[in-house]
User: Fold this.
Amino acid sequence: MEIVSACFGGNGSPDESSWSSLTLWLVTNEGDVYALCPLMPSKWQPNATQIPSLSANAMAKKASEMGDEPMTEQEKRMQSDQYTWLSEVDKQIPFLAARDDNIAVNDAIYSRPKHPGPLPRLQGPFTMAAGSLVDFLDVSDIYVIPPKLDAQELMLGEDDDSELGLQEEANGLSATIVCLLTTDGRVYTFVDLEEVEGQWLPSKPPKNMTPTPDSHELILIEALDTLEPESSSIDEWPTFTRDPFSRYSLFTTHSQGVYFFSFLPWITRLEEELQSSSTVGTEFRLKVLMESAGTLRERILNF
Assistant:
């Protein structure tokens, strides 16, 4: 297994899902996708929504254990570990970092919890719902767009969310977008409807540490080309670049030029399906959406 690229699933913004910035996504040269969560330093600074959101989620899961829905041993361990981890965070008295400019800001520094442990479990390889289209991919880069924070659930019972610094995009998506770029310039866009969450290695690791296939599924939305086969070089290594102005767009660069991609044309329709209370015909509508996603692709620079 050769890791060719990695990126974190978020940049720590208060309007993104709370596990995202703690998740490191990795991709191998053959297109296998993995994740490590939570991957963090010994000292960390959460944003204004991170701890409240993670705590609310852990408490909801703890309450669900009392329900009738069956759970696997792995799910039980994950929920128990998350509750232990968040409980230790909640008990901490954070260190307040000093600022030379005397500006009052929320610079609360927390220590990484000691339990369940410092090492996250390697999750994956994730299943790709795309058939033989992505069986063997010569991948050069990976880019991940985090799901938006469920602000309504977080602010339930609150009067104002301005103190948390929420600046949610109107057309946000409550699912993760995972993009893979291959050496022949093709961009594969997947949607992850299940968020990657914190999982830790057991205190006594088993002898066999080889990662097992994960039930987590990445759904292929689109595959778009940016290179003509006759114009690409043998040593081609395309890369992604983040768009600083929009979460839902990015750039690709290779020896022939630069392309701009925007996912805004279809994320609103997908979000409406995800939030719909009706389940009748959902699978058919999602299939139609994926067949006509319509990602904006524009060549903005020629080399």
